[in-house]
Design goal:
By secondary structure, the protein is mostly beta strands. The chain has two helices and 67 strands.
Amino acid sequence: MSKYLNIILFLLVAPITILAQKTDYNGVGRWRTHFPYKDVKQVQEAGEFIFVLPEKGFFTYYQPSGEISVYSKVNGFNDIDVAIMRYIEPLNKMVFVYASGSIDILDLKTQNIQNIPDILRKSILGEKAFYDLQYFDGKAYLSSSMGIIVIDINKLEISDSYQNIGPSGTVVSVYSTMRYNDHLYAGTNKGILRAKAKGSNLSDFQNWQTVKPGLESKLLRVFDGKLYAVNDSVYQNYDDNSGNIWNTIRGNTIKNVVSLELCHNKLIETHWGGFIISKPGGSIDSIRENAVACGILDVNNLLWTGGTGLGFFNIKPNGSYGYFGINGPNSITTNTIAGWNDEVWVTSGGPGFVYGPTFNGAGYYHFKENTWENRPNTPQELLSMYDFTSIAINKATGETWLGSHATGIARFQNGKFVERFDTYNSTLRKQQGLYTIVPGLSLDSKGNLWAANYDVDSCVSVRYSNGKWQSYKLSMNSVGEMVIDDLDQKWMTTPRIGSSGIIVFKEATKGVLQRQRLLMKGKGVGDLPSNRVNALIIDKDNEIWIGSDEGLAVFFNPQRAFDTEEDAQRIIVDQNGVVGYLLGSEAINDMCIDGANRKWVATNNGAFLIEKDGTSVLEHFTTENSPLPSNIIKSVGVNGVSGEVFFGTQNGLISYGGNATDAGDQHGDEVKIYPNPVYETYDGDITIQGLPDYATVKITDVSGRIIYETLSNGGIATWNGKMFNGKRPQTGIYLVISSNKEDKDSRVSKLLFVN
């Protein structure tokens, strides 16, 4: 498979400045990733480029201009979990080995991406792990848990593999492979093995001999006529001419070497305390730096490095530093995603296996003006909170509340922390005296904040708009996610209790319930698909959509929630001649609505977009047909202004340009059309934004002849650039005429079409 690289993001940076990189919105139908970049695992020099490997995907720094470019599946690469990357200088190609076994080859001259799927497709018992990649004798040698895999880069194939080369033909994990003089050396979990590089069957274990017994031999490199390696955490070298004697480097037992790289006839040793640069003849330079994970020396003697939490930076010969910060969320973990205006809030924590805290300290991520703002290091009152989960936003003011799965509630105004609520200043209580768990938050029509306080006697608390608190007791105390309908009825999931489903209640007076009802699986008691409900949303028609581990259901009449004869309904659809329940028995993790009242559904099988009335599935994104980094999607939320949909997957955040925005009854300040002009090379959708809800859009030529007509999704309408007859219009000016549902508010905009 061959693809061409599409650079979607670049930034001109100053080489000694810490930068907060912005990731511009790409438009309807486009994807962009939102990965963390503060953890750097590997760095490679490739001509004038520095390739950097963070937790997910990779990025490059172009030294002449300072451009930073971020890459992932969005750009045509086949995966995001890069285990190893290596620049092959004689071929001017980059090799990316993914944790899945897939291999991408990037030709830096042609920008062509080619894939080798052989290992990915191979059924392998046991662990599939990749440790090192070295190029010699015209081939790339991949060291893995399966042995040595030989890759012919030019032919794009696995040309050979050497497995079961351990003593008596046992399987060994090979951590590093290197050609030294006449032998091929393999650093393994049985020590260092070697075999004649030529003239012997390297697949036959009898041709391999143990030259250095051990439990972990890795980072084999040849430098200055010697073979270097880390043997059982001891850094050593070996001279073929002095017998089988391994010398400990510099007479000590350094036990923390994490990287060895050959750079411009120098050996760069990276350990947790810094770097040692060895030169031919034995002289060395040393640089102190804590917690670094890798290091290379470029042609200009700049040392490029990074590490966990350190980001990407360089150290110049004069000792000065250059930092290159790429903006992103703190972590790949997500729990809840909520949008307000043109902003998005994401929480990172969540319950553990037994619904206890996971002690996730990543905090929260706030996306505003295309920049991620992470939890600050102060004040201590906020910093000491962890496992943020639930979110409630006042749609009128933007005041935001974040619930924690251990430490109470945090309140924010204008994006800034204001105060914390826990057992000391509210009616919230600790579960068994340990943790103040708040898995559900919601605001009622009067602006009162309601909180689900899991596993305490008075399991629901409310903070009234006047600042006073009140608590309520229900028939059960295992309460979770919460939504409040237009009648101010409170609906909550019941996590950890497999026989309960949903509880709905309405209060009479302060502290006193008016009525409550448990909704469960079974006719007459709620008729839920399952008692394990993971998601609740209220749509624009005040209908309650329920997502369970066995599919979807809807309460179309929440005003009858306490009527014992009122049950949830499952929507029956006809998909390609097959009649069944909407989404069948898909395990649903989260849901949200977009500006057109359509439902985005996060599942363990990708993301679904459902028509507003549930009659059809409009989209189904998976890792196979989209840049999604994982099919397991834990959370989903929408930016109502742009229509951008954010997916929190188990491999990080990614967003998609949805074609629906929030809208009112009138046009916005400006009707935007993009692209405009539309050139003959453009074959995507044309987006018309700033429309009223459910607007009629007609496209005419200057004589008034209608060539296309459609209705908006919320505030967005799209046109595929073709007339009713399926042909592209001729070059000219076209009018875009839009009007609201009542036909009382109309606009005329112009579009230049070049064909």
